[in-house]
Amino acid sequence: MEKDRPSSFFPNRWLTTALIAVLFLAALAIRVYDITDLPNDFYMVRQYRSLLIARGMYYSHLSSVPQWQRQMAVAQWQEQGLIEPPIMESVTALTYDVVGEHIWIGRLYGSLCWLLGGIAILLLAREMSMRAGGILALAYFLFVPFGITASRTFMPDPLMVAMIIWALWGLYHWEKQHTWKTAILAGVLTGLAIFVKSVAVFPLLGAAAGLVISRKSWKRILADKQTWLVAGITAVPSILYYIYGLAFANMESQFSLRFFPSYWTDPSFYGRWLFMSAGFAGFAALFGALVGILLFPSSGPRFMAIGLWVGYIIYGFVFPYHIITHDYYHLPILAIVAFGLIPLLDFVARQLLDKQGRLWRFAFAGLLLFGVGMQMWGARNTAVVNNYRPEIPYWQALGKLIGHDKKAIEVSGDYGSRLEYFGWVNPAYWPSVADTNVRLLAGEKQPDFASEFAAETAGMDLFVVTSMPELNNQPELRDYLAAHFPVIAKGDGYLIYNLKP
Amino acid sequence: MKKFFTGMTFYNRPWVWKVTLVLALLAAFGLRMINLTNPPLDFASTRQLFSALKARGMYYQYATNVSETTRQLAISLGNVGIVEPPVMEEVVAQTYRLTGEHLWIARIYSSLFWVLGGLALFLLIRELASTGAAMIAALYYLFLPFGVIASRAFMPDPLMVGLICFSLWALFRWQVTASWKWAILFGVFAGAALFIKNLAVFVIVGGFAGVIFGVRGLKRSIRDLQVWVMAILLVLPVAIFMVYGTLKLDMGSQLALRFFPNLWIDPAFYFRWAYTVNFNIGWVAVLFALFSIFLADPKRERPLLIGMWIGYLLFGMTFPYHFYTHDYYQLSLIPLVAISMAPGLRLVLNRFFELSPGILPRLVLVAIVLVGVIVPSWYSRDQMVNTDYHNEPAFWAKLGDLLGHDQSVVALSQDYGYRLAYWGWQGSTNWFTSADIGVRYLAGQNVDLMQQFKQDTAGKTRFLVTMFSEFDKQPTVKDLLNTHYPILAKTDEYIIYDLQHPLAP
Fold this sequence. Notes:
The complex is a heterodimer of chains A (501) and B (505). With 501 residues, chain A is mainly α. Chain A folds into 2 domains: 16-36 and 109-385, no CATH class; 391-498, no CATH class. Chain A has helices at 13-32, 44-59, 67-78, 87-99, 104-127, 131-143, 145-151, 157-177, 180-196, 201-213, 218-222, 225-248, 267-281, 283-293, 299-318, 320-325, 331-355, 358-385, 391-402, 417-421, 433-441, 449-457, 468-473, 475-484, and strands at residues 408-411, 428-429, 462-465, 487-491, 494-498. Chain A has a 5-stranded mixed sheet. Chain B folds into 3 domains: 2-6 and 16-36 and 108-386, no CATH class; 45-107, no CATH class; 392-498, no CATH class. Helices cover 68% and strands 4% of the residues of chain B. Chain B contains 25 helices and 5 strands. In chain B, strands 2-1-3-5-4 form a 5-stranded mixed sheet. Chain B is globular and about 85 Å long. The termini of chain B are far apart. Classes of the chains: A mainly alpha (501), B mainly alpha (505).
């Protein structure tokens, strides 16, 4: 039957492979463009955290640096606290061992991880006999603007998104083959995805639940030993990690200030969430992916898609504050949309390619590559506008001015990360207004300024201000500092008070 | 109940699509009424104020309840030149005579014309593809945020786009029926569209040529009287206006600085064009529309679609500079994308009905379509509410009072001095912005700033600056003014130089 024949772009397999290769090469090219710039373009606090961890790991056994520097690098690493397993950071530190320390290495790994996720999209589409749809969904996944920006970052998220797609492939592959081997593979991939970053549990649990529910028989679900095996393997890595984290690494602090159910009753929360998700995924693509749910030819992938969306919605309800303030919390939606687009795009592509001659196929591929080129142009324009490299000497000079051995507390716009990384200073962090507001939202009391100031500055030598807007947001602090402490240095964008005159 | 829902396709129950369409049109119109009284600075403000000044000038010609000085000033300020026939301005001015002068009246007309265009678009796509495809394509046309914002602007473009939709509908009806009725209707609608704004020529003539070459055949068409009547009706109104305008209204100057063939060989032009399309229309929608052309029936549907797209491409090549600097040049792309989507939508919907005959999937589809309408509507609503310009008229009125309404002013001011003219009742000669200078360089002209300054300020009494970033971009002029002329008034928002009493050297 015509419809059951696997779709492909060109009858000639090599041409299809060449098209896919072009997509991957172009995706890599746009991600390595200007990669040596500092990672200030997207959630720099999160990226510098990874940079500090990776450098600490690398310096811990580096003998060619002064003792103080090694000790400080390790201290800065250990002060970061445990959130997710430092997989990306470990791999980057190991690479530093071979090639030396380069800021862009973490970004390169992020980009490569994203591309690996693209391979999983192709495998998933092939498993569903929707190869042409897979190629188009791949093009979406690799070139959606938000994905380009967010995937060339040094954070665990690009790897998490890639692993989500691999886990989806593993789950679907298992459902189709239903062998012990594929069950173990599905469990390992799903478990790894959740291990990389625990929030992957939401879409994946939804997808897995959807998949088994699609069997439409409780007996087939509950009596299936393989299902229990998959669930067990999935859960083990994260359970072990959390036991370790809670017992030895003070991980419970990471769970605070995340759950704000008060948002649920605020209509603007839903509006912002919807706009952000539609904006990042692209409204038409989001709409197409929703329509795609209805176009899956069998209930397995259809229920998986529904499960993915339900999981994403629950995710937003669990982290309402973060979903409307942290762009990168939306990254899983790109995997969900890419998955949902496969049947829609495959159907359209099948209609086009089956009916047209060779010339039209090339025209079709040309249009696709033209669209890709446009997205690359937009991403290139965004990247080229910014140049953060001059910041390095700035922070280095400021670090020297402060003194690497001084105890300082800092009002900053980046949690002190750039001063730490480039300035080799280990400042304590004075809470911003935004931090205080989150605490108030969580029901904590407004701290008393005098006692807070006394507690935070106890034993400190200097009070460093590197964000004037933030200082002006806190007039009580600004006036208190001005009235009680002398300024020992002042320059472009910084102010240093001596707390021990 | 089950039977009710399973039979609930647009085919089985025609009243469903009729009710849905009416609700969609009403909702689209209602959406455009949000923050109606906001001054028209939210989109292409220069073009909107141009029309506002013109309409006020026309209205004051009839006004009897104002002083003769005010009346003459309004008429003089409304004399901003002719670009297109002032149809919208005349309609609005006549309405002012009944209601008094309210700028938001124009928004109502523009919105109405655009929304009515949605009706024609629906009828066209319904015949071209299917009722379901027509509904979704019409919703796209009605609720795309760029379209929502642009279609409530006081400019001829919403009416032009509405008439393009009616023209294309009539054209396709003629293609199918070959009747005199549709031939004449096409000629009337298309002639009106071109008359309102001659830029409609590209998409309409493109579509017409597509039908002639791809469906009817050139030889047969040349011998067909209907085709000749259609062509004559299409061309006649705009031809008469162009001849009259060139001879009597100095319209020749309007054609200057528009054609820049040197951009054709600049790759950045194509990227910028595509970027503008992506930003306003969205690449996914445009690519889907383009792919859909491949899915269209080669004889019945594809010629019209290909013709319109070729027309659009020629449009871009003819006005390369405006195509990436003026968003509203992309407005005719919205119905073009909506129509082109139709074959693809038809196939997708057929596939959906084939896979999902039950109630639940249909309800889910309805819910998804509703989400697809609500999200962009809410986005548009946010844009309309958040960009508030209600404080602008008072500022410009105050500035006008300060200048005295009777001064000879050169102004480096927003919208070529139109804000000052409209709310401040103070005319001015516009001083070049850096973009104006740039476009002249692009056209191969050389701008001697000192000479230009001398020429523009001759006989003038004041030099007003309200665009400080622009002022900073022109250090020669800034130094010249600061060193040679005294400042009469200065705030964070404006500087007024006295040109009558230069400082001693």
